[in-house]
Design goal:
single chain; binds nicotinamide-adenine-dinucleotide; 9 strands; 10 helices; alpha/beta; Rossmann fold; two-stranded parallel sheet
């Protein structure tokens, strides 16, 4: 139980990676406050936190709204007394495949506001609390899109680049207070957001997008939200006590391997062959 007596705060905790992490923290002993706009989803997460034998609190709010965030952090402090771990997980995307001329100013502002402004608001408040006790962990959810060019998704990629820069600068500022700040950069993860985007891109055939993205990942699969939660839990734990200002890629090798230039023609040919075989098998199914 790595998080006994610890209090974790997670944004976007009603679904996907946020929910899986809330459950993981609870299973390891943390009390967990989850913030999200989705009240019904938060109730489900709270239920699961309780099933792990822990205590939780739901803050129904838009995490880019400073007043709503402050009110809910005050509620969490009244309930649990402190915050030891902050997971800035919330994120939304602009409609995929749109070129820059088709992205509206509203789309762009919404993505930057939800993905970046919320992280600033949440972290500013959390740092105040963590500084006093000279310990804390902040983990931010970036994406491989911060590292790999994305055709169609300009606002999302921009916001995730900002998450990485924010992480490093905040880490530099906070290391003398015992606060470690790190980020994760996930590849494709099977979550409701991933499924929604797949349906939007291939109406009636979302499996097609999954297949294409599996092929993009050198390990030829996408991950579960629980696999990401395990890495967040590691970064939040004392096992990661000497880590700050890092970005951990949870991406099946996409950023580490895909951009290599193969010096070995046989290896390249065998990779191409396995992609062809894999595609044929999927078509047969
Ligand atoms: N799923 C992936 O393939 C993937 C890959 C890389 C990075 N990520 C990142 O992981 C994070 C979580 O993604 P997910 O796939 O679990 O998404 P998800 O849609 O399943 O969950 C996101 C949650 O955030 C909530 N939310 C959205 N806007 C909000 C707001 N303004 N205030 C409060 N709550 C809000 C939603 O209601 C939802 O419950 C995001 O930052 C995303 O960019 C996801």
């Amino acid at each position: 139980m790595r998080f006994t007596n610890k209090v974790a705060l997670i944004t976007g905790g009603a679904s996907g990676i946020g929910r899986a992490t809330a459950i993981r923290f609870a299973r390891e002993g943390a009390r967990v406050a989850v913030f999200d706009v989705d009240a019904v989803g938060l109730d489900r997460t709270l239920e699961e936190i309780k099933q792990q034998g822990s205590d939780g609190m739901a803050g129904v709010c838009d995490v880019a709204d400073i007043d709503a965030v402050n009110t809910n952090i005050d509620r969490a402090l009244d309930r649990f007394g402190t915050v030891d771990i902050l997971f800035n997980n919330v994120g939304v995307a602009d409609p995929f495949r749109r070129g820059i001329e088709d992205v509206t100013l509203e789309d762009f502002d919404r993505v930057l506001t939800v993905n970046v402004r919320s992280m600033f608001i949440m972290s500013r408040r959390a740092v105040g609390i963590m500084k006093e006790k000279r310990s804390g962990r902040i983990i931010n959810n970036a994406s491989v899109c911060a590292y790999l060019p994305v055709r169609g998704g300009i606002a999302y990629a921009t916001s995730k680049g900002a998450v990485v820069s924010f992480t490093k600068s905040l880490a530099a500022e906070c290391c003398r207070f015992g606060i470690n700040v790190n980020a994760i950069a996930p590849g494709a993860i099977e979550t409701p957001a991933f499924r929604r985007a797949s349906e939007q891109l291939y109406p009636g055939n979302p499996e097609k997008r999954k297949l294409l993205i599996e092929l993009d990942h050198p390990v030829r699969r996408i991950a579960s939200a629980e696999e990401v939660a395990g890495v967040v839990a590691f970064l939040a734990s004392t096992d990661a006590s000497f880590m700050t200002a890092t970005v951990v890629h949870v991406d099946g090798g996409v950023t580490g391997i895909c951009n290599t230039i193969s010096q070995n023609a046989d290896e390249l040919a065998s990779s191409l062959e396995s992609i062809r075989k894999y595609s044929a098998q999927r078509k047969e199914k």
